[in-house]
Write a structure and sequence with these properties.
The protein is mainly α. The chain is about 80% helix and about 0% strand.
C-alpha cells in the first residue's frame, strides 16, 4: 500500500467519524427530540475529542501535528458559534435567520459553551502560532479541550445536583480520551514501528479509562432515570439505552483487539494499514456514541 493510499485511508476514517457523529444525532432525533443545536454540538464534540487526544499524545510517546490541531480547533470554534446561534433560535421559537442581538445569550447555560468554544479555539490557535516558532507545552491544548468537554457535559442535566456534574464530567472526559486518542493515533502514527511503540502504551492506559467510563455511565443513568419504565418510555431513556448498547459493542471489540491486535503489533507483526483499520473500527462506533451524547445534551430527561 503506497503512502498516498495510507494518507487517504487516514483521512477517510476521520471524515467518516465526523459523519457518523452526525448520524448519531439523527438516531437521537428518532428516539427523542433534541434541539437543532445538537447537530452542531456533535461536530464540536468530535473536534474536542480529537484535541484531547492530540494534546495527550506525548504521554504515549507520540508527536501531535500542528495542522491537525489547527483544523480541530477551527472546527470546534465554528461549530460552537453555529450551535449557539441555532440554540437561541430554537428557544426563541424563531428562524435562525431572524435571530437578533437581543436574542443572544439569554442564559448562562446557553452562552457558556459558546463562549468557551470561541475563546478556547482561539487559545489553541494561538498555541499553534507559537508552536511554529518555539516549543510551547502541549498540555495547554489538552487542558483547554478538557475544559470544553466539561462545559458541554456539566451545563446539561447534571447541573441541578452537587455531585452528578462530577460524575458526568469524568464520564465525558473518559469517552473523549478514548475516542480522541484513537483518532490521534490514526492521524499521527507512522509505520509498523510507530504502532509497535505507541499502541501497547495506549492499551495499558485505556483500561482504567474505560473502567471509569463504564462505572460513571451506570451511576449517571441510574441517578437521572432510575431503573424502570423511564428507560423505554422517555426519549432520553431510549437514547441512553442505545448509547449503552453501542458502548457495550465497542467494549467487546476493544477486548478482542487487546487480545489479538496489541500483542502482534508489539512484535511488529501488524501492517500499518491493518492497525489504522482496527483503530478506525473502534473509533467509528464511538463516533455514533458521541452523536447520541450530543443529542442527550439538549434532550429533556422527562
Amino acid at each position: 500500500m503506497t503512502g498516498s493510499d495510507v494518507t487517504s485511508l487516514r483521512g477517510g476514517i476521520i471524515a467518516a467519524g465526523l459523519a457518523l457523529a452526525v448520524v448519531g444525532v439523527g438516531f437521537c432525533q428518532i428516539l427523542a427530540r433534541p434541539e437543532a443545536s445538537s447537530w452542531a454540538g456533535a461536530v464540536a464534540l468530535t473536534a474536542l475529542c480529537l484535541l484531547v487526544g492530540l494534546g495527550t499524545l506525548p504521554q504515549l510517546g507520540g508527536t501531535p501535528t500542528v495542522p491537525a490541531i489547527v483544523t480541530a480547533a477551527g472546527v470546534w470554534g465554528v461549530a460552537s458559534v453555529i450551535g449557539g446561534w441555532l440554540q437561541v433560535a430554537d428557544r426563541a421559537g424563531i428562524s435562525p435567520f431572524d435571530v437578533g442581538l437581543s436574542d443572544i445569550s439569554t442564559s448562562v447555560e446557553m452562552g457558556l459553551p459558546v463562549l468557551v468554544g470561541a475563546l478556547g479555539s482561539l487559545t489553541v490557535l494561538a498555541w499553534c502560532a507559537f508552536a511554529l516558532r518555539g516549543d510551547p507545552p502541549i498540555g495547554i491544548v489538552a487542558m483547554v479541550a478538557a475544559l470544553g468537554i466539561l462545559v458541554v457535559s456539566v451545563t446539561g442535566h447534571g447541573g441541578h445536583s452537587a455531585w452528578v456534574p462530577v460524575v458526568l464530567g469524568v464520564h465525558a472526559l473518559s469517552a473523549a480520551w478514548w475516542a480522541g486518542t484513537l483518532a490521534a493515533l490514526i492521524v499521527t502514527v507512522r509505520g509498523k514501528g510507530g504502532w509497535a511503540r505507541i499502541l501497547p502504551e495506549f492499551s495499558s492506559r485505556a483500561l482504567p479509562v474505560v473502567a471509569a467510563l463504564t462505572v460513571t455511565g451506570v451511576i449517571a443513568a441510574v441517578v437521572q432515570l432510575g431503573i424502570g419504565s423511564q428507560l423505554w418510555d422517555t426519549g432520553y431513556g431510549r437514547t441512553v439505552v442505545a448509547k449503552t448498547l453501542l458502548l457495550a459493542v465497542t467494549l467487546g471489540l476493544a477486548w478482542w483487539h487487546r487480545r489479538s491486535w496489541v500483542p502482534r503489533a508489539r512484535r511488529h507483526g501488524v501492517t500499518e494499514r491493518e492497525s489504522i483499520i482496527r483503530a478506525g473500527s473502534e473509533l467509528l462506533i464511538l463516533a455514533v456514541v458521541l452523536g447520541l451524547a450530543a443529542g442527550l445534551a439538549t434532550t429533556g430527561v422527562i
